[in-house]
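TODO from last week: model Alpha-1,4 glucan phosphorylase.
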Amino acid sequence: MTETKSQAELRVHAAEGDERENAQERIVELREQILAHLISKTGRDRSSASTRDWFLATALTVRDRIVERWIDSKQESFDQGQRRVYYLSLEFLIGRLLMDSLNNLGLTASVREALSGLDVDLEELREIEPDAALGNGGLGRLAACFMESMATLSVAAYGYGIRYDHGLFRQAIKDGWQHEYPEDWLAFGNPWEFPRPEIEYEIGFGGSVEAKADGRAAQIWKPNEIVEAVAYDTPVAGWRGASVNTLRLWRSRAPDPLRLDVFNAGDYVAAQADQVRAESISKVLYPSDSTPAGLELRLRQEYFFAAASLKDLIRRHLAQHGDITTLAEKNAIQLNDTHPAIAIAEMMRLLVDVYALEWDEAWRITQQTFSYTNHTLLPEALESWAVPLMERLLPRHMQIIYLINALHLDRLRSAGHHDWGLLSSVSLIDEHSGRRVRMGTLAFLGSHKVNGVSQLHTDLMKETVFRDLHSLYPDRIVNKTNGITFRRWLFEANPGLTRLISETIGPAFLDDPEALRKLEAVAADKEFQARAMSVKQKNKEALAKIITDRLLIKVDPDALFDVHVKRIHEYKRQLLNVLETIACYNDIRAHPTKDFVPRVKIFAGKAAASYHQAKLIIKMIHDVGRVINNDPSVRGLLKVVFLPNFCVSLAERIIPASDLSEQISTAGMEASGTGNMKFALNGALTIGTLDGANVELRERVGDENIFIFGLTAEEVQNHRAQGIDARATIAGSPVLKDVLDSLASGVFSHDDRDRYKQLVDILTYHDHFMVTADFDAYCEAQRLADIRWRDRKSWWRSSILNTARVGWFSSDRTIAEYAEDIWRVPVRTVSKS
């Protein structure tokens, strides 16, 4: 019988009514669970609960929803015998998890309403959650994005890292200078993690090595120090709860936390010395390596987490499959940079010494299991360790590295390679710098695939840091351009824009980022542009309030927000931005009748604790800002602000409010960058060099929707080959000369007129990062941005096209490529709602 229109309407209304009823029941259930957790976990009721108590109760309620799927995901992986991926990274810049989890589980609106009925504001809970700053920048944030995408695509995966007591330091600014303080993210506990005290492994250091009597390559290592690695698990939920994977972080502890005999003898400090030494391994992310003790601690950290992770995954493999020889068939290990590269030698030690495999079979399994992601073209950033330190701390591993190297060089000589220069270049031991182990070479030789993180980076990697290795193993290096998770960097960070896009082109882009392409059809539409401008304006007003509240500096939300936020480093060239800022300041004062585009220059980022030059750049930003912001002749046309303690949650506020994205690293020095993708996704136009993923970003958004300037990577190399004395360049640029003269003479440092003299001398005589060479081109690109900003219709068309055309930069796409080309595991299509 055919259904009439009236019957169909009644059926739809009934379904909608059922859905509303179910939604209301879900809200009531969530409210009851939150109240139950509040009482049982905090020991308080509604009348006495603090905001932190409500956060804990809400987080535990959300965690309950994740755990069910987590258990199911692990069981599915086990039942299907899937090949597992293990992602080893010294950094996981996780950030806050409450909104991320709510967003991925589709619970944000329900939990918001449930809390509202309890007179609790979800936004207040969001702000009180500490940032898990277990990373330094892009590399750690990439690892976090990848974990989420692996769960979204149902790749059975574990992330392995260190549970640092103190992540990246908390940055405070005093009189313009950076000061570092411990970031105590665990002060109030971590509701997302599950301690696993029953999962612990003994990790050895030092000692001696004895040969076995059977004539095999196996040896007996007898460490003289033992540290225990204890597991803490955090579930990582994929989009729409597709699956839930595990981030397992290791905490170090001493086997005997207290020497009771020494304590009873009255030496209370010495009685705890072993505990302090052991726990220092997981105490701080990136301890300063400027001292021998700091270097040793860094190496101890790297081996500690790599060794614990390998023991754990081998235990899991044997429990399920029972045969160590099938390890490579069932497991893929990805090394995120060289920090975990010692895992190559540790795997060989385990297979040969513990599981009694022959050397050649062990090496085959190792190579087929491991792959390595390179993140740098800076030779000094490719880790190397002094041989004496390795021999003292990891004597068996040093033996293994020597043997890997000898067999590697023997094979090359047997194949007819006798050039001493080539053999020296590809040797695991660098004989030119006091004999050091090249960890990048170890990672390369021990892996079946080595990938760069943007097409330019990969191409340059073949020509520079791994040129000779690439000539010998031409099929090993592949490209996997980085991506970002749109769930955090659009849906969560910019809900206003997300709603607008959904109302305009439908919700398909929530599951398929490439569907953002449909926005191209409305890029020039006046009504849509006006709505997009309204969303951006609200985001800018929110950021302006943060600036006022934290810095007591008032900025105009109608001005162009020109944003440069990333780690402070000379190659990222915050200095170039500051010099151009001074040039703008000089221009405003010299031409009071000229029509200038009002700008707010927004900086944020941390300098490594021992990086003096980077800290000096932070001081310069503050000095320049103080002069400009307090000069009445500027009339508010230019403001300079530095937001301290840059972190994931602050980035989530800055990026959606940005108009212009600064991606101005020296060409050929940025491996990829992911900030460029986040800004473009949120509609900021990029001003940048042809470096890292900027090259692919330009290809996708179009030349007319990005401001590219400066030397190419090849031109930078040619300039350096000709010399980096910049006197002629400076003499040919009156604007630059005036800027440098004002810096050197103390115009911006009245309390210490010589503060920037040495820095100006470096730019003049040793401009390695091509700041002066790119200065005029950068200024010209900024003036083109001014022209575009005045043509608001053109600016907003470009802004919308940036959002529309960056779907390819999703980390889901990147992970799918890893899965197919490197890990050889299947991925599941993201389910549509």
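Done. Residues 12-16 have pLDDT under 50 and may be disordered.
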